[in-house]
Amino acid sequence: xxxxxxxxxxxxxxxxxxxxxxxxxxxxxxxxxxxxxxxxxxxxxxxxxxxxxxxxxxxxxxxxxxxxxxxxxxxxx
Amino acid sequence: xxxxxxxxxxxxxxxxxxxxxxxxxxxxxxxxxxxxxxxxxxxxxxxxxxxxxxxxxxxxxxxxxxxxxxxxxxxxxxxxxxxxxxxxxxxxxxxxxxxxxxxxxxxxxxxxxxxxxxxxxxxxxxxxxxxxxxxxxxxxxx
Lengths: 77, 142
Known about the structure:
The complex is a heterodimer of chains A (77) and B (142). Helix content of chain A is 49%, strand content 5%. Chain A has five helices and two strands. The radius of gyration of chain A is 13 Å and the shape is globular. Chain B has 142 residues and is an all-alpha fold. Chain B has four helices and no strands. In chain B, helix 3 runs antiparallel to helix 4 (109-136). Chain B is globular and about 50 Å long. The two termini of chain B are 24 Å apart. The mean pLDDT of chain B is 89. Classes of the chains: A mainly alpha (77), B mainly alpha (142). The interface between A and B is medium-sized, with 18 and 18 residues.
């Protein structure tokens, strides 16, 4: 089983704060499929840096308000 | 389900069905005798041709049915596709090496052709399963 990404995100909360923006609307605004937005929200897919910035720009917040990379115990590079 | 994921299902099912029909026809023709003596060329060509035609027709139908959800491919679709192709390529190489060995030992063309065809089928099956698994599960970073 593949380990899920360590990157977490607040997209769901940000969508609700933004007039309950739908996943479809967010997908349309960043030019991806709704399935990709769902996969990102669920932490099953890490978007490219460019897509991450596009998402942050949609919500008009800094990148680290959308994506977080918590420090983990053990494995570090 | 993403349009591309539906496409993966189509390719997977069509490929398996086409090969199963081919194998059944050739085994039927062999009728318990030596397999290499069974006529296979027409069945093999028909199987490949029918698989390509069926995949095109079903993909068009799936496209028409799901056009409301959008037919676009995005970055994730491309990464999943590349990852699946990368995973499946090894099976194609193994099949090609097998066919090379068979040619070098001057095996019957039946075995060479069927090794290559089987490699195509196994490779596309692995590719399809990988694509579906990546759509359903986690896309690993690499």
